[in-house]
Specification:
single chain, mainly alpha, two-stranded antiparallel ribbon, 60% helix
Length: 268
């Protein structure tokens, strides 16, 4: 407690003592004392309630999302470096393009106009990067991904992740919004988003289908790469088993001893 708060507390306490003395009381009325907002302070308003109170009733879709749709561009670019032999699954032959594809090749800041364009470009990439993370986290990041997934389920599909309103930071969605459907703050926020007609806007723009396609672009090559890793490890394991089966003849105990760590082997 700081000096200012301590002074307020002392002054209010003396005033309460004077009032109690005037009416003949020998003790303070604790209930009345702590009802004084000067003493206990105003109750802290949850971030969710603040976000709802600050927001407008009209949903505003960001310009970068509008441009993304107008230009028919993708959040995740794919390329085919070469076909894998004897594999009919097209996803195996696709890979996510390198991160450099999201960065403009040459941005010269030799003039004021170029510098302005560079700033605008950086702002656009920041907003697109945030949407990319939302899409990634739905399936790949367990903690935060679960929260995004629950929001998408409550509002009709993954497409709503494109147009979640700016309510003072992404932590509103990744931390502040309760996961439980019965929590009052979650009920209030979901109701507010529905009143803004966010589900209808996502449906009208076809964002649900767009989001599912983006997820498939990420998960297709990722699953193919995972299958390849598993297959390689299985092949190595089978090779190890085969070499063990061809071990030199000897007692079972001798062979078992040879497989144990040296510190665990019986001393002779």
């Amino acid at each position: 407690m700081g000096i200012v708060e301590s002074r307020i507390l002392a002054k209010t306490l003396l005033t309460a003592c004077d009032q109690a003395e005037k009416v003949g009381n020998r003790r303070l009325d604790e209930t009345q004392f702590w009802q004084d907002t000067t003493i206990r302070g105003t109750p802290r308003q949850p971030a969710i309630r603040k976000a709802i109170a600050r927001s407008s009733k009209q949903l505003q879709v960001s310009r970068v999302v509008q441009d993304l749709q107008d230009k028919h561009e993708s959040l995740f670019s794919l390329h085919s470096p070469g076909r894998v032999e004897n594999n009919s699954d097209p996803s195996v032959n696709l890979q996510l393009a390198s991160l450099s594809c999201y960065v403009q090749a040459s941005l010269q800041t030799s003039s004021l106009a170029d510098f302005y364009n560079f700033i605008i470009y950086c702002e656009q990439q920041q907003q697109l990067g945030k949407i990319r993370l939302r899409i990634f986290r739905v399936r790949l990041w367990v903690g935060r991904g679960e929260r995004y997934d629950l929001i998408a389920r409550d509002l009709g599909g993954l497409g709503v992740l494109y147009i979640l309103p700016e309510y003072g930071g992404e932590s509103v969605w990744t931390k502040e919004l309760p996961k439980s459907a019965t929590k009052p703050n979650r009920i209030a926020m979901i109701k507010h988003l529905r009143e803004q007609r966010l589900p209808e806007e996502a449906e009208r723009r076809g964002l649900h289908t767009l989001a599912e396609d983006e997820v498939a672009k990420v998960l297709g090559p990722t699953k193919a790469a995972l299958d390849q890793v598993i297959e390689n490890h299985l092949s190595q394991a089978n090779s190890q088993v085969s070499s063990d089966d061809e071990r030199p003849c000897g007692t079972g105990d001798d062979w078992l001893q040879s497989k144990l760590p040296r510190s665990c082997q019986a001393r002779t």
